[in-house]
Write a structure and sequence with these properties.
- By secondary structure, the protein is an alpha+beta fold.
- The chain has one domain (about 10-180): 3-methyladenine DNA Glycosylase, Chain A (Roll).
- Helices cover about 15% and strands about 25% of the residues.
- It contains 4 helices and 8 strands; from the N terminus they run H-H-E-E-E-E-E-H-H-E-E-E.
- It has helices spanning about 10-15, 20-25, 110-115, 130-135, and strands spanning about 30-35, 35-45, 75-80, 85-90, 95-105, 150-155, 160-165, 180.
- Helix 3 (about 110-115) packs across helix 4 (about 130-135).
- It is globular and about 40 Å long.
- It starts with 11 loop residues before the first helix and ends in a 13-residue tail after the last strand.
Length: about 200
Amino acid sequence: MTLPAAGSAPDLASELKRAPEDLAARLIGATLTFAGVGGLVVETEAYDAADPASHSFAGPTLRNAAMFGRPGTAYVYRSYGRHWCLNIVCGSRPGGAVLFRALQPLEGLDAMRKRRGTDNLRLLSTGPGRLCQALGITGAVDGESMLAAPFDLTLADGGREVVCGRRIGITKAQDRPWRFGLAGSQFLSRPFSER
């Protein structure tokens, strides 16, 4: 699918009212930085409260409380007790969020290289755990607004080709095509399979 070019600068606050799967596609091509470090969003995944694969499926808990916050809230959790993962809360119903899976690094490359311990540009922020490590994002910002510093999230005007497919690393609701990526990007965490 190709997202059309917008007529004027997109308003992030209004876009956050979209359903998670719509926002996940819309975020492809956006720029995301944290304290001046980041890049181009090239891969996302969508989750909502009616989705058995979502952390919000069983209702609010201490761990997932941020998912039930206002649209624009950061939901940051540890995956397998090792890697931080960043989501942005969205939608008109509580419990929806979009996981940032990969960025094309553009800003703060020296900081990313130091945090990740590699000079390989592709490995700096490809995958949700690497992305958070490269940007310096931890659970300390869980529940914080992504509409204010140190976050800076700016939507693209459109006109980019977005591919979609099945989400990665889940055991439930595997058939939902709620993973989105920038077509042709070398910074995707995994290629999208042919349908």
